[in-house]
Amino acid sequence: MDFKDVIDAMHSQEIDSLIIFKPENIAYLSGFKPSSSSILILKDDAVLFTSKMEIDNALNQSKVQVAELKSLNEVKKTLQGTVGIENSLSVFTYKKICNDFKTKLTDVVESSRIIKADYEVKCIENAIKIAENSLMNTEIFETENKIAAELEFNMKMEGSIKPAFDTIVASGVRSSLPHATVTLNKLEFPVVIDWGAVYNNYCSDTTRTIIKNEKQAELFEIVLEAQKKAIKVIKPGIKASYVDKVARKVIEDYGYGSNFIHSTGHGLGLEVHEKPLLSQSDKSKLQEGMVITVEPGIYIKDEFGVRIEDVVLIKKNAVRLNKIKTEITL
């Protein structure tokens, strides 16, 4: 990772040292994602402090200097000037640092992560491939939990570190719940499957809805039209909120506006949910190199729901990274 852009951004915000606790930010800057307490200090160079339990892995994987993490007080001795603090830092840790330094909250690393380098895009594409192959090799069992279990098993066998998030398999009336948890319920239709793999710390996120009758097919076609029209307008310079507006208008025109109860999409990378948010409130402009999801949905309470989600890379126009068919049949 070239730190130049992050360091330049630090200096533009008059930050002399940056103290980083968030695992995804550490992974972005060092190539090593810790599973226990680690701290990365960024000045004109970088040092990763990590525990004895992880130091061997860090030495093998990190692209920056590694040292043993003995205490926060030892780490604080390396800081100087105004110290940049992540917005996600706990209040407890924040107070420990604030007492000794002039600090400034910053999202300088997250802002850098918005634009994906070519190798990051490749990692996301590999995560998508793993997830898609895993679904195609999953047998449809009689219950939601068995589908989810086999799908997650297949992803690990295909090379995923872990599921990118808790797999959603919601069938029948439960498909109307966007974030339904998996149950022991017997399978009904439609079946909404929302799943993702992790490759080299980068995530995928895809949703498919398996339909069975004409009413379900009608809503499926509306959601698909909304997604296609949203993807069609995606290009650098377009506001994130405009993409949401385009998808939302399609669904509203069919009379289901009140049944589209979430944003149209979100950024994707080291985390499943990153900036930008394709929502009515996000007025930021899309940029070349962003990777986002586009996932409109219609949810009819106590009946059923439909969602379709694909991953898009923003170039001069949108490039759909998913290869799996939109409509899956049994």
Brief descriptors of the model:
330 residues; 6-stranded mixed sheet; 10 helices; 34% helix; Creatine Amidinohydrolase; Creatine Amidinohydrolase, Chain A, domain 1; single chain; 3-stranded antiparallel sheet; alpha+beta; 2 domains; 22% strand
Task: Note down, in words, how this protein is organized.
- It is a single chain.
- With 330 residues, the chain is α+β, with helices and mostly antiparallel strands.
- It has two domains: 4-113, 3-Layer(aba) Sandwich (Creatine Amidinohydrolase, Chain A, domain 1), CATH 3.40.350.10; 118-320, Creatine Amidinohydrolase.
- The chain contains ten helices and 18 strands.
- It has helices at 4-12, 23-30, 55-61, 72-76, 91-98, 108-113, 118-136, 144-158, 214-233, 240-253, and strands at 17-20, 38-42, 46-50, 65-68, 83-86, 103-106, 168-171, 191-195, 198-199, 202-203, 206-210, 265-267, 274-278, 291-294, 297-300, 304-307, 310-314, 318-320.
- The strands form six sheets. The protein has a six-stranded mixed sheet with strand order 4-3-2-1-5-6, with helices on both faces.
- Helix 5 links the parallel strand 5 and strand 6.
- Helix 7 crosses helix 8 (144-158) and helix 9 packs antiparallel against helix 10.
- The chain is globular, with a radius of gyration of 22 Å.
- The N and C termini lie far apart (44 Å).
Query: What's the architecture of the largest domain in CATH terms?
Result: Alpha-Beta Complex
Structural class: alpha+beta
Query: What's the structural domain tally?
Result: 2
Give the low-pLDDT segments: none
Radius of gyration: 22 Å
CATH superfamily of the largest domain: Creatinase/methionine aminopeptidase superfamily
Beta strands, count = 18
Query: Looking across the biggest beta sheet, what order are the strands in?
Result: 4-3-2-1-5-6
